[in-house]
Design a protein that fits this description.
It is built from 29 helices and 31 strands. The chain is α/β, with parallel strands linked by helices and 803 residues long. It folds into four domains: 225 residues, 3-Layer(aba) Sandwich (Rossmann fold); 208 residues, Rossmann fold; 170 residues, Domain 2, N(10)-formyltetrahydrofolate synthetase (2-Layer Sandwich), CATH 3.30.1510.10; 82 residues, Formyltetrahydrofolate synthetase, domain 3. Strands 11, 12, 13, 14, 15, 16, 25, 26, 27 and 28 form a ten-stranded mixed beta sheet that branches.
């Protein structure tokens, strides 16, 4: 009756809105979509197994509703169900099931095109459609239904090339991509639209979402594919389709497996293909670095001029080059970023790399150049071709403005931009300062409120009545549990239990926790607080320390996760009661506030060297003379190097690296590098000692002491073996503290001696290797959250002055 009839002989007819494939001959031969899809899934299962073997711990993830089929081949499937009230902005970047059932107006084109092209496994974005239209079949995703049709045609053994194919329907999901797919498989394609000329009126009329066909059009040997998506009663099909086609249809009803299994199989196949492309691009341990060329000048310009003359690589680009995913990086402008801890999850199955630690001989006043050596190691020496991560501590503004002027390295070996690196960076030290001072304020507030008020008044302030009902908060419950009170109803507490619950009875004379600031200010080493008339005579002596001396900084450098940090912060002993009992941050009720303040500081900072090599972990900054002086830990795969540095000289920073950091991490360095300078050798030359030269040499690493030894013995062993003292002397205050901490159960912690970094002795004027001296220990403090005791040598300062 039409051009379609006369031209369609021994060809392929695709009806793009119905549901199965049949060879149109007598008797009708069914190609079972369920069986074919099962074969495809079996192949995909083997491919997923191979991917998991290549990248341990990695699992392809399809966040859509085809849960059972995905899980059968070893994929992870996530079922995301959103309410009908979901807005368009809330659905952006999700692969959605169409048609959408939403109460809100949705711009479907915008929603689909928000999906990243590399994740468009449904093949519906404009980018995928454009690539398919121009024949880039190996560089795009194809919609599942036309892709499944093509697979079934191939399974039928039908040669597509030089055949005439007719596609009835032109939808973006099926008809249009089916046209392109057949065309690029060398078929001659006719696509019939509702306004195609010379088609019988009955043919183009659409009822119940299926086209009415005339059976006599179908020629023997033709392929007919019905992509059915809506149910239509049999009697209506027979009436509309004509006797011949109805008989053919009827002989195959009900459809065995239908076309749906093929769609599911194609969707999963696209997900596996997407996974392969992703792993090829972001294979763990595979770097795609592009380096900057340096323009060396003579004479060498100043450090700041060199830093500003270099073209910075966009930090997002650097993150991609070293294998970090976009969702694992938070950008702080174009020059710095934070790395989310979720990166550890996708890398946790990777083997460890080599571990280098950089230390130095006992330094001069201006240090020795460890940072310069570290950044030099990250230079792109092509013959070596190793992946090197530089892990450095974040500089404190105290010494930056006090004497050093910078800590980013120097010359053509430095971290850039240097002013960003040296000042503020992403605000981590500021967060530590605020968190530390919140505890100090809470301690004084507790003392202030406890003295004049009754137990009942304090209880009413702590456990508020809302509409006549009192309830304990989670913080209250944790405190009650620590007190051994297993009650959850505030009305059931006895007077004695209320007294224990509301009163900490802090002893203001025992100075455990001090305020901090990140500026060298010698006039704040001792101050008087509480002198305002409104403070009711609560005057006492206090002091400021440098921010990086705060135990919170030490916790940051030793923590392993947000949960671990929350526990450590809550465990910090911040005061003592008049009975000598330890009072923790959790007892003040500030544990939750502390973790909120520190939630971003736990994320390491990403920067770069002059050449554009990564400095992925500028993080934490504890001083080595008054803390453990080490940055957090990260290893970079079997062929990579993690280069970290320790504060000050080997007698301070490296000793603490071995006996505190290695103690808790369980990781030991493969190489120790000792840095010295001519000026340092002139002053400390006799202190120079040999170092390990090869990462492949067997390690004889041993911890310095047994943690179970008494506190005094651990201090003595450290001082004698590292500093060469004859003996130590615990002054009365230190002796008392050692006894108190042992009684409180903290005696098994490692030791972190706080002393001058300018000499092996307690006298900064004694150079070389002094002998015949006794090391005086004037006090012992406890960093329980971080996990060590730190004895203070008589001359150490916890905040310096400006020079």
């Amino acid at each position: 009756k039409t051009n379609l009839k006369s031209s369609y002989t021994d060809g392929i007819l695709v009806v793009s809105i119905m549901g199965k494939l049949i060879k149109a001959m007598a008797p009708a031969e069914i190609l079972n979509g369920k069986e074919v899809s099962a074969q495809i899934r079996a192949r995909l299962k083997n491919q997923v197994i191979q991917l998991k073997e290549q990248v341990p711990g990695f699992t392809p993830d399809l966040a859509i509703l085809q849960l059972k089929a995905a899980e059968e081949i070893g994929m992870k499937a996530t079922d995301i169900k959103l309410p009908r009230t979901t807005t368009e902005s809330e659905m952006i970047k999700f692969i959605v099931q169409l048609p959408l059932d939403s109460e809100n107006s949705i711009t479907l084109k915008r929603l689909i095109n928000a999906i990243a092209p590399e994740m468009d496994v449904d093949g519906l974005t404009s980018i995928s459609a454009g690539k398919l239209a121009r024949g880039d079949l190996n560089d795009c995703f194809i919609p599942c239904m036309p892709k499944g049709c093509l697979e079934l045609i191939k399974e039928a053994g039908v040669q597509i090339a030089r055949r005439h194919a007719v596609v009835i329907g032109h939808s973006k999901i099926v008809g249009a991509p089916m046209n392109d797919l057949l065309l690029w498989n060398n078929a001659t394609v006719t696509t019939c639209r509702p306004k195609t000329a010379n088609l019988d009126e009955e043919v183009i009329k659409v009822t119940y979402w299926w086209l009415q066909l005339v059976g006599e059009w179908i020629k023997p040997g033709a392929i007919v594919i019905h992509c059915r998506i809506n149910y239509v009663p049999h009697d209506k099909k027979k009436k509309k389709m004509g006797e011949k086609l109805w008989l053919m249809w009827h002989t195959t009803e009900p459809v065995p497996g239908s076309f749906r299994p093929m769609m599911v199989a194609m969707l999963i196949q696209s997900t596996v293909e997407s996974t392969k492309c992703f792993l090829e691009k972001f294979k763990p341990g595979k770097w795609m670095n592009q380096y900057n060329n340096l323009n060396f000048k003579t004479p060498v310009p100043s450090d700041i001029d060199i830093s500003r003359s270099c073209k910075l690589k966009p930090i997002g680009k650097l993150a991609r080059e070293i294998g970090l995913l976009s969702e694992e990086v938070e950008l702080y402008g174009e020059t710095k970023a934070k790395v989310l801890l979720s990166a550890l999850e996708h890398l946790k199955h990777q083997p460890d790399g080599k571990y280098r630690v950089v230390t130095g001989i006992t330094p001069t006043l201006r240090e020795k150049g460890k940072a310069r050596l570290q950044s030099g190691w990250c230079k792109p020496f092509l013959p070596i071709s190793t992946r090197t991560f530089l892990c450095v501590r974040q500089p404190s503004q105290g010494p930056i403005f006090g004497i050093k002027g910078g800590a980013a390295g120097g010359g053509y070996s430095q971290i850039i931009p240097m002013e960003e690196f040296n000042l503020h960076l992403t605000g981590d030290i500021h967060a530590i300062t605020v968190a530390n001072n919140l505890i100090a304020a809470a301690i004084d507030a507790q003392i202030f409120h406890e003295l004049p008020q009754t137990d009942k008044a304090l209880f009413n302030r702590l456990v508020l009545s809302v509409n006549g009902v009192r309830k304990f908060s989670d913080t209250h419950i944790r405190r009650l549990n620590r007190l051994g009170i297993e009650k959850t109803d505030p009305n059931t507490l006895t007077d004695e239990e209320i007294n224990r619950f509301v009163r900490l009875d802090i002893d203001p004379e025992i100075k455990t926790w001090q305020r901090v600031l990140d500026t060298n200010d010698r006039f704040l080493r001792k101050i008087m607080i509480g002198q305002a008339p409104t403070k009711k005579g609560h005057i006492r002596t206090a002091q400021f320390d440098i921010s990086v001396a705060s135990e919170i900084m030490a916790v940051l450098a030793l923590t392993t996760s947000l949960e671990d940090m929350r526990e450590r912060l809550g465990k910090m002993v911040v005061a003592s009661s008049k009975k000598g009992e330890p009072i923790r941050a959790e007892d003040l009720g500030v544990g939750g506030a502390l973790i909120v303040l520190m939630k971003d500081a736990i994320k390491p900072n990403l920067m770069q060297t002059l050449e554009g090599t990564p400095v992925p972990f500028v993080h934490a900054g504890p001083f080595a003379n008054i803390a453990h002086g080490n940055s957090p830990i990260i290893l970079v795969g079997p062929e990579g190097f993690a280069v970290t540095e320790v504060g000050f000289g080997a007698d301070i920073g490296m000793e603490k690296f071995f006996n505190i950091k290695s103690q808790y991490s369980g990781l030991h360095p493969h190489v120790v590098v000792l840095v010295d300078t001519v000026s340092a050798l002139k002053m400390q030359g006799a202190a120079l000692w040999s170092l390990l030269k090869s990462a492949q040499a067997p390690s004889s690493f041993q911890l310095l002491y047994d943690l179970k030894l008494p506190v005094e013995d651990k201090i003595r062993i450290t001082a004698q073996k590292i500093d060469g003292v004859d003996d130590i002397e615990l002054l009365p205050k230190a002796q008392h503290k050692a006894e108190v901490y042992t009684k409180q159960g903290f005696g098994n912690l490692p030791i972190c001696i706080a002393k001058t970094h300018l000499s092996l002795s307690h006298n900064p004027e004694q150079k070389g290797i002094p002998t015949g001296f006794v090391l005086p220990i004037c006090d012992i403090n406890a960093s329980i959250g971080a996990g060590f005791l730190y004895p203070l040598v008589e001359t150490v300062k916890q905040v310096n002055g400006l020079f």
